[in-house]
Amino acid sequence: MATSKPAPVQLNFPPSSSMEVLFSKEEIAGRVKALGKQISEDYAGQSIVLIGVLKGAAIFLSDLARAISVDNTFDFVAVSSYGRARVSSGAVKLIKDIDNPIEGKHVIIVEDILDTGLTLSYLRGLMLQHMPASLKIATCLDKPERRLVPIEADYIAFQIPNQFVIGYGMDYAEKYRNVEDIRLFPEEAVGH
Ligand SMILES: O=P(O)(O)OC[C@H]1O[C@H](OP(=O)(O)OP(=O)(O)O)[C@H](O)[C@@H]1O
Ligand code: HPA
Ligand SMILES: [Mg+2]
């Protein structure tokens, strides 16, 4: 009797230098500076808590925090999500909560990318339970075509079409987070 095993997933890791640059590090720096200025104006005279979503948002948060001139502190959360691309149930689970209370504080959740919206809509609900004075969302990238739940960011560096990207914190199978530009990951290299 023939038994058929599922084929092992083949992951290809082409060099990032072979990938098309969508946004150069200079363009990113320009947009981050502009967002920092906008946030500083919107929160003039107040202090804010930035909450980064590990791991993707770490690099954007570190640049954004330094582009904001009003008092700010930061904290991190981590979530695990299961088969986001394939399963529409979109189960998201918190695996690291905030370290410090945010009740009565002005909070901005910071993400690298808003894609289906499942991660941010889960986190927004969770953070609202902590009764912050206000809650907004800043994202480096917004991929509106992929949205499965209605959610929008308040601060967006760039909108992108439905293409997979890497760099500036974003990974493919944990690689390429340290790439300085945001680049298009080639469709043909995605593991099947
Ligand atoms: O809008 P969504 O469809 O929910 O997708 C966006 C989320 O997915 C990625 O994180 P991921 O869970 O892959 O983990 P990572 O941040 O550690 O890369 C990305 O960093 C966002 O957090
Ligand atoms: O385009 C993407 N790149 C990396 N991680 C992601 N998570 C959701 N979309 C993406
Ligand atoms: Mg993430």
TrEMBL record:
- Keywords assigned: Cytoplasm, Glycosyltransferase, Magnesium, Metal-binding, Nucleotide-binding, Purine salvage, Transferase
Q: Domain named Phosphoribosyltransferase: which ranges?
A: 25-172
Q: Which GO terms describe its molecular function?
A: guanine phosphoribosyltransferase activity; hypoxanthine phosphoribosyltransferase activity; magnesium ion binding; nucleotide binding
The record's EC number reads 2.4.2.8
Question: Signal peptide: which range, if any?
Answer: none
Reaction equations catalysed: GMP + diphosphate = guanine + 5-phospho-alpha-D-ribose 1-diphosphate; IMP + diphosphate = hypoxanthine + 5-phospho-alpha-D-ribose 1-diphosphate
| Pathway this chain belongs to | Purine metabolism; IMP biosynthesis via salvage pathway; IMP from hypoxanthine: step 1/1
Note whether Metal-binding occurs among the keywords.
yes
One of its GO biological process terms is:
guanine salvage
- Provide the Gene Ontology terms for cellular component: cytosol
Q: Please give the chief subcellular localization of this protein.
A: cytoplasm
What subcellular compartments does it reside in? Cytoplasm
Q: Which cofactor does it need?
A: Mg(2+)
Q: Which CDD domains match?
A: PRTases_typeI (cd06223)
State the similarity comment.
Belongs to the purine/pyrimidine phosphoribosyltransferase family.
Provide the protein name.
Answer: Hypoxanthine phosphoribosyltransferase
